[in-house]
């Protein structure tokens, strides 16, 4: 444990002590130990499969134990899995200890809440209607304990340390932000499966019928894993295209990722749903993919472009649209790639669309693209400060840019600031920036 900081060690020690206190009444309990062993074995097997095949966790059996067993006995169920299932990252022993103690405390808390709410009697009588409320309270307790303990470890672990039990540290006041809400829905689904297991266990059909509940859960996890594999393939496709653009147009390396980030900020500020936010992020990342069809000598030319050369570069939205038109998961991002250089007054390209003729997604990407172009250093001009770039966007709103998109970006940056994940440009300084970011910066 020498590599672990003192605060993280203290956090692990406190949770382990709490788990031991939860187990203290075990010697005086009268409980069917075969049930404890069976549930522990099923949980260990399920956790191994869930981690290896689906990259997730396996809570239904733990929650079924909380509904069926006394709290100290229920707290025993996750312990064998800690000894058998690999943690996957070092320090292996500390991670297993942390996970076992954390789950033991969470299951104990869920069982205590369930029994206090009268859930045990409802489960024994197989009264599903009466069992729902105690089960819901137990699920909330389980989820709350897990998120509080995870938040403590996130606050205690140093940022970026791969050897910490939780590999990402964060500020104490932000450690718990969003953890509970993100985990509540999946834990609630697992809790419903656990309640079904517990009711069937106590019914005349017995434990065998209860374990059959895990079959549809396994199918749903398989479908979910396939969905995530498909999304991973989508991201790999996009990453390959962006890397190809960055290699060809070295002056704008990192620009695509930053435009994706700014597009996502605008979309969230507009209140768009998560699916459209993700599509707009793809649109921002891929907006310049058509540069793969533009001669490299034009993209890397240091001097001014001739009118003929500019016309060639202005074909890149159409090239990009042709390249991605067969990628169905991009959806409306394809029209953003085609129209992100259109202007509200009709002076843009490739088709000279005006106003609302320009798709909404393209109007979002146009603002994000111009903002990053102005705030990034290029070989032919210096970067502008964020405030100056926003002022320029507001000045051009209504003629070049959609005022609603500009206002959304201003609000998002006022609240969150601008912290691009990728630094672009070669750091060289050239000439002062042009007064208006638009078609004259066709190489961005």
UniProtKB/TrEMBL annotation:
Question: Locate the HD-GYP domain: which residues?
Answer: 230-425
Pfam families xref list: HD_5 (PF13487)
The portions of this protein that span the membrane are 60-85, 97-116, 128-149, 179-201, 207-225
Task: Give the matching SMART domains.
Answer: HDc
The answer to whether keyword Transmembrane helix applies is: yes
Q: Does this entry carry the keyword Transmembrane helix?
A: yes
Recite the UniProt keywords alphabetically.
Answer: Membrane, Transmembrane, Transmembrane helix
PROSITE patterns, per this entry? HD, HD_GYP
Q: Which residues form the HD domain?
A: 252-374
Q: Which CDD domains match?
A: HDc
Q: Which residues form a coiled coil?
A: none
Region (Disordered) residue ranges read: 421-444
Q: Which SUPFAM superfamilies would you find in this protein's record? A: HD-domain/PDEase-like
Q: Which InterPro entries match?
A: Cyclic_di-GMP/3'3'-cGAMP_PDE, HD/PDEase_dom, HD_domain, HD_GYP_dom, HDIG_dom
Q: By what name is this protein known?
A: HD-GYP domain-containing protein
Its lineage reads: Bacteria, Bacillati, Actinomycetota, Actinomycetes, Kitasatosporales
């Amino acid at each position: 444990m020498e590599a672990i900081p003192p605060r993280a060690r203290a956090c692990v020690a406190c949770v382990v002590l709490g788990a031991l206190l939860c187990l203290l009444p075990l010697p005086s309990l009268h409980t069917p130990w075969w049930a404890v062993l069976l549930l522990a074995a099923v949980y260990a097997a399920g956790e191994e499969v869930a981690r290896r095949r689906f990259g997730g966790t396996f809570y239904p059996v733990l929650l079924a134990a909380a509904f069926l067993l006394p709290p100290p006995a229920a707290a025993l169920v996750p312990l064998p899995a800690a000894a058998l299932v690999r943690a996957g990252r070092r320090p292996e022993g500390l991670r297993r200890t942390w996970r076992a103690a954390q789950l033991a405390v969470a299951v104990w808390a869920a069982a205590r809440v369930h029994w206090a709410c009268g859930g045990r009697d409802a489960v024994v009588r197989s009264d599903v209607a009466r069992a729902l409320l105690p089960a819901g309270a137990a699920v909330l307790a389980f989820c709350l304990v897990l998120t509080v303990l995870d938040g403590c470890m996130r606050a205690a672990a140093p940022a970026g340390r791969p050897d910490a039990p939780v590999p990402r540290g964060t500020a104490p006041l932000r450690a718990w932000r969003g953890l509970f809400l993100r985990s509540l829905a999946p834990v609630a689904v697992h809790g419903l499966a656990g309640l079904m297991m517990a009711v069937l266990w106590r019914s005349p059909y017995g434990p065998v019928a209860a374990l059959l509940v895990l079959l549809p859960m396994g199918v749903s996890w398989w479908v979910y894993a396939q969905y995530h594999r498909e999304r991973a393939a989508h991201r790999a496709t996009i990453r390959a295209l962006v890397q190809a653009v960055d290699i060809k147009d070295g002056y704008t390396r990192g620009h695509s990722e930053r435009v994706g980030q700014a597009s996502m900020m605008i979309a969230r500020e507009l209140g768009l749903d998560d699916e459209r936010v993700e599509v707009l992020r793809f649109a921002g990342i891929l907006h310049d993919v058509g540069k793969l069809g533009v001669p490299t000598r034009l993209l890397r030319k240091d001097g001014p472009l001739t009118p003929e050369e500019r016309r060639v570069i202005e074909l890149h939205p159409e090239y990009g649209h042709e390249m991605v038109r067969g990628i169905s998961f991009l959806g409306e991002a394809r029209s953003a790639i085609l129209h992100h250089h259109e202007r509200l007054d009709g002076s843009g390209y490739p088709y000279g669309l005006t106003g609302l003729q320009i798709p909404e997604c393209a109007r979002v990407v146009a603002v994000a693209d111009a903002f990053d172009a102005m705030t990034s250093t290029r070989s032919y001009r210096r970067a502008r400060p964020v405030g100056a770039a926003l002022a320029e966007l507001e000045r051009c709103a209504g003629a070049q840019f959609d005022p609603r998109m500009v206002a959304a970006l201003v609000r998002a940056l006022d609240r969150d600031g601008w912290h691009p994940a990728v630094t672009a440009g070669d750091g060289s300084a050239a000439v002062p920036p042009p007064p208006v970011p638009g078609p004259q910066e066709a190489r961005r």
